[in-house]
Amino acid sequence: MRILFSFLILCSISVSVFAVDLTAEINAAAEKVLPQVIQWRRYLHEHPELGNREFNTSKLVADELRKLGIEVRTGIAKTGVVGILKGSQPGPVIGLRADMDGLPVTERVNVPFRSTAKSEYNGQTVGVMHACGHDTHVAMLLGTATVLAGMKDKIKGTVVFIFQPAEEGAPAGETGGASDMVKEGVMDNPKIDAVFGIHINSATEIGQIKYKSGAEMAASDWFEIKVKGRQSHGAYPWQGIDPIAVSTQIYTGLQMIVARQSELPKAPVIITVGRMTAGIRENIIPEEAVMAGTIRTLDTAMQDEVHEKIRRTATKIAESMGATAEVRIDRKTPVTYNDPQLVKKMLPSLEKAVGKGNVIDAEWVTGAEDFAFYGQKAPSFFFFVGGMPKGGDPKTVPSHHTPDFFIDDSRLDVGVKAFCNIVFDFVK
After folding, report:
1. What residues does CATH 3.30.70.360 cover in the chain?
2. 19-218+335-425 has which fold?
3. How many CB atoms lie within 10 A of CB 190?
4. Is pLDDT at 223 greater than 50 in this prediction?
5. Please, which residues have CB within 8 angstroms of residue 231's CB and are 6 or more apart in sequence?
6. Which of 126, 264, 293, 389 is the most exposed place for a label (fewest CB within 10 A)?
7. In degrees rounded to 5, what are phi and psi of residue 424?
8. Across 100-113, average pLDDT
């Protein structure tokens, strides 16, 4: 018995040493590829493309994957690219995702690789910028593919590299993004057992990773409320029904849904009206007013309840003032949910990338991510990598989706290390 116990101890030590050695190899390879990752990122930053129009980006991705000997599929959800790397041994299928699209934002950051690109958006000529860091996501996933291709003989299973277009939304009249990738079978051929995603964050210091188990990012729904009254002369308001006055009451009512009707200790709820339009002349009370906005929820049951409350609030307030209200709600993006068991299992992989003290359990995020659609098909884990320079103030750094958005790309190896360690640790 003593001999058997000693043997088991020796086996355990051997396995442990192997894991440590492999982690060191992964991290060293990630650091070696970092200059190339930075080069890819800066090229993509200088040449951004809007959703469903990522033609140059897709070509670059496909070309680089082919150089690595990875099977490549193109034209998925219009401009999406999928790379498939089969390891030398059988095992699970792991999906790794990066989004590729830029935003209709004119860059103000004074860097040598500043974007001067322009494009058409909603019938207007606009500047284009990677104002949410998708250039870093593509670069980090290409770096991951480079490292894993070089360690193919050690991989158990298959890795699917998902380069997705239109995360920020498709152009008017088009579909796109993760939902289209899923519809076209990216999660089914081969069938993915677990899927992981990464997002840079300008308010998180470089060298850190943030995550949240369970519901992490909000569902995003858009709404439009069309209020119909009766037109009249501005001098005789009693002769009409003012849809603007009705709309202001509806606006207040919407905020009361959040303030007085939602169980906020359970999960956040946000209702934002971002657009109100009505009338064409100062002395005419118009017949119609329109308000539109977004709904953010982090609980599916609460999401359904809020939708019903919005419909009831708008129609009943309008009715009480002699008007009518038509409510349209479009479900855009589900809650991004990190499977708790998967998170627990893979946290050590993130710690290998940056050290235990630099993996931080964060708060809810009321922004949305269409990565959520992949999580409806397989257990998923989405986390954030720091892009703020050391010593920066999270409260003052320019936010995402702004002309001054800035990322310190000196530690993009963090994302590569995290992805690669996940691939090897998932099978343990």
Report:
1. 219-333
2. Aminopeptidase (3.40.630)
3. 15
4. yes
5. 240, 284, 285, 286, 287
6. 264
7. -80, -30
8. 98
The CB density around residue 128, as the number of other CB atoms within 10 Å, is 24
Q: Using CB atoms within 10 A of its CB, is residue 265 exposed (0-12), middle (13-18) or buried (19+)?
A: exposed
Q: pLDDT tens digits for 276-289?
A: 999 999 999 999 99
Closest CA to 211 of 344, 27, 410: 344
Q: Does 153 participate in catalysis according to the annotation?
A: no
- List, in sequence order, every residue forming a beta bridge with 271; answer none if it has no partner: 295
Q: Which CATH number does 219-333 carry?
A: 3.30.70.360
Q: Summarize the confidence of residues 177-182 as an average pLDDT.
A: 98
Q: Is the pLDDT of residue 102 over 60?
A: yes
Please compute the mean of the pLDDT values over residues 3-23 and round it to a whole number.
Answer: 49
Please answer whether residues 375 and 214 qualify as being in contact, where contact means their C-beta atoms are separated by less than 8 angstroms: no
Residue 1 has pLDDT above 60, yes or no: no
Q: Are 44 and 135 in contact (CB under 8 A)?
A: yes
Enumerate the β-bridge partners of residue 296: 220, 270
Task: State the chain's mean pLDDT as an integer.
Answer: 95
The answer, yes or no, to whether residue 104 has pLDDT greater than 60, is yes
Contacts of 424 (CB under 8 A, 6+ apart): 22, 26, 154, 155
Residue 6 pLDDT grade (very low, low, confident, very high; cuts 50, 70, 90): very low
Helix (H, G, I), strand (E, B) or coil at 59: helix
Element (H, E) at 298: none
Give the whole-angstrom CA distance, residue 10 versus residue 1.
14
In one letter, which amino acid is 15?
V
User: What gap in Å lies between CA 62 and CA 44, rounded to an integer?
Assistant: 14
| pLDDT for the residue numbered 14 | 42
- 167 catalytic? Reply is yes
CB 100, CB 138: distance < 8 Å: yes
CATH 3.40.630.10 positions along the chain are 19-218+335-425
Q: Which of 101, 299, 339, 409 is the catalytic position?
A: 101
Does residue 7 carry a pLDDT above 90?
Answer: no
User: pLDDT for 385-402, tens place per residue?
Assistant: 999 999 999 999 999 999
C-alpha distances (whole Å) from 347 to each of 209, 354, 358 are 10, 11, 11
> Token pair 């986390």 is at which residue?
383
3-state helix vs strand vs coil in the chain, percent to 5: 40, 30, 30
Tokens in use for 384? 């954030």
Residues 405, 409, 415, 416, Cα dihedral to 10°: 150
